[in-house]
């Protein structure tokens, strides 16, 4: 099956700085790569996703890049704000089975 | 729309007891799934269903049973609870067809003593 690795496990940044979280995957058949944000005591919520036929996608302060050849994808958050503090998960899937990374706990220091 | 609703939110069981975690969605999603979340291990798929009457195993299915008699409901059963099943459980749903957003419930925290 698919194996998704995520780094770093914890990340602290000053408010206004950028944050980058990286994931690698093993199955070249994976074709959809979502990123989820989980706040304390809540379920994960989708923040951005990318499909295998696209190299980059941006939504305001959030962007995701995908390198299919190297099998890695990254989440970029610019101008971080305290409300960005949460746990972020990457995932990869070919359809019915989603494989998640182990999560990154992001802390934005005011 | 309520989205994905899970009950109970908290449960404590003794080893060997059985229980059912309930999951209901009101978005007419054909695909439903159960995950467990453990510290340092992310979310791992237990079982999933692509429609009423159809279920399949995920990464960690042992010790869990599911059934799908309606589009709306996808209960997760623990027949003989073990301490290793202490975890936070999430139900998630999405439309079928091409891959798309998973909508998660708020989670059910289970402790097995």
Description:
The complex is a heterodimer of chains A (110) and B (113). Chain A has 110 residues and is an all-beta fold. Chain A is built from no helices and eleven strands. Helix content of chain A is 0%, strand content 57%. Chain A starts with a strand and ends with a strand. In chain A, 34% of the residues are buried. Chain B contains no helices and eleven strands. At the A-B interface, strand 4, strand 5, strand 9 and strand 10 of A face strand 4 and strand 5 of B.
Features:
heterodimer; A: 110 residues; mainly beta; five-stranded antiparallel sheet; globular; B: 113 residues; seven-stranded mixed sheet; four-stranded antiparallel sheet; 0% helix
Question: How would you concisely characterize the structure shown here?
Answer:
The complex is a heterodimer of chains A (110) and B (113). With 110 residues, chain A is mainly beta.
What's the helix and strand layout?
The complex is a heterodimer of chains A (110) and B (113).
Chain A: E1 4-7, E2 10-14, E3 19-25, E4 32-38, E5 45-51, E6 56-59, E7 62-67, E8 72-77, E9 86-93, E10 98-100, E11 104-109
Parallel strand pairs in A: 2-11
Antiparallel strand pairs in A: 1-3, 3-8, 4-5, 4-9, 6-7, 7-8, 9-10, 9-11
Chain B: E1 4-7, E2 10-13, E3 19-25, E4 31-38, E5 42-51, E6 54-57, E7 64-66, E8 76-78, E9 87-94, E10 103-104, E11 108-112
Parallel strand pairs in B: 2-11
Antiparallel strand pairs in B: 1-3, 3-8, 4-5, 4-9, 5-6, 7-8, 9-10, 9-11
Shape, per Cα inertia axes of chain A: globular
Helix and strand string of chain B, N-terminal first?
EEEEEEEEEEE
* Average pLDDT level of chain B: 94
How far apart are the first and last residues' alpha carbons of chain B, in Å?
Answer: 36 Å
Decide which structural class fits the backbone of chain B: mainly beta
SSE ordering of chain A: EEEEEEEEEEE
Q: How many DSSP E strands of chain B?
A: 11
**Could you give a short account of the major beta sheet of chain A?**
6 strands, mixed
Largest interface (C-beta under 8 Å) = A-B, 29 and 26 residues
How large, in whole angstroms, is the Cα Rg of chain B? 13 Å
Helix content of chain A: under 10%
Tell me how many strands of chain A there are.
11
Number of helices, counting only DSSP H or I runs of 4 residues or more of chain A: 0
Termini of chain A, distance in Å? 41 Å
């Amino acid at each position: 099956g698919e194996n998704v690795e995520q780094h770093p496990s914890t990340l602290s940044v000053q408010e206004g700085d950028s944050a980058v979280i990286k994931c690698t995957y093993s199955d070249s058949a994976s074709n959809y790569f979502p990123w989820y944000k989980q706040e304390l005591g809540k379920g994960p919520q989708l923040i951005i996703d990318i499909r295998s036929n696209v190299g980059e996608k941006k939504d305001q302060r959030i962007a995701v890049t995908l390198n299919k050849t190297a099998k890695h994808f990254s989440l970029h958050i610019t101008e971080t704000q305290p409300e960005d503090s949460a746990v972020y998960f990457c995932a990869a899937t070919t359809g019915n089975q989603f494989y998640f990374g182990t999560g990154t706990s992001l802390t934005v220091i005011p | 729309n309520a989205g994905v609703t899970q009950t109970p939110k908290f449960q404590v069981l003794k080893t060997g007891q059985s229980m059912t975690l309930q999951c209901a969605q009101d978005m007419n999603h054909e695909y439903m799934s159960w995950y467990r979340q453990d510290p340092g291990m992310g979310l791992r798929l237990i079982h999933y269903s692509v429609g009423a009457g159809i279920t399949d195993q995920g990464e960690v299915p042992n010790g869990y049973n599911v059934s799908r008699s309606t589009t709306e409901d996808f209960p997760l059963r623990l027949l003989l609870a073990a301490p290793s099943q202490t975890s936070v459980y999430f139900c998630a749903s999405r439309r079928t067809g091409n891959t798309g957003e998973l909508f998660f419930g708020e989670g059910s925290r289970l402790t097995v003593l």
